[in-house]
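User: I'm writing a tutorial on reading structure tokens. Could you give me a worked example: one chain, its sequence, then its tokens, then a sentence or two explaining what the tokens reveal?
Assistant: Sure. Here is the example chain.
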Amino acid sequence: MTDDINIERIVIDKLKSGEDSIERGLLVASGCETEEQIDNYTAKIDELDKDFKKWYAIKSNSYTLRTYMKIKQKSFSEDYQIAKALFKYLWKIKSKTFFSKKTDKSHSLLTDAIDLNLFGHKEICLSSSSLYASLGLRNNLSLSILYHDSHILLVLDDDKKKIAIETTASFGFDYKRSFSLYKNIYSGNLIHLIAATFNTRADIKAMKEDFNGAREDLNKATELNPKYKEAFRNINILEDYILKNNIK
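And here are its predicted structure tokens:
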């Protein structure tokens, strides 16, 4: 058994029992195959977090930031202010748009968001949500998600209110239409981001005709989220394709 399989298996088992972090799960699902690689990306997230905290500390008491964020500090909770500041930071400070209009699923991973300063591209919600969630958890934000077959939204649980965070639009913080915009939308915890990463990874492998690898990743996705209808549907599509084409 290879090291990467050991790490994936260990992390998945620990995630299911609540003993490992969402961040580590996302890094492993994004392709980190050794503890050294995980440590390398963890250090990069550390630097992003330090930079955000420094930026927020400098700007949080300034009239400029309050005007920029269009909020009065006393009107909202501290979590709300931090969450919105993080959204603005990632959009305005760290965002790069370099994609064509066609979705490139190979850039859906947390590692891409870190390496490329990727945030907010309208067709790739997974990497943006994963990056925001990783930094949000480091800032003690209570986050969950809404998802359906083709999209993921983050939700801030703040003072018994739910604040939608649409990471693919610059106006997407506290975007109230998000709760009614999509049909058949499901709520879940952040572990679904990891399941969705395995599902996306399976799609990439299937396009490269690595059908066994795709099957394994889809099984990991449904193991982490047993209610993940899209992943189960993809398993059926994959098995039907393998059977019809007599693929060994």
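What the tokens reveal: The two ends are 22 Å apart (CA to CA). The first helix runs from residue 3 to 16.
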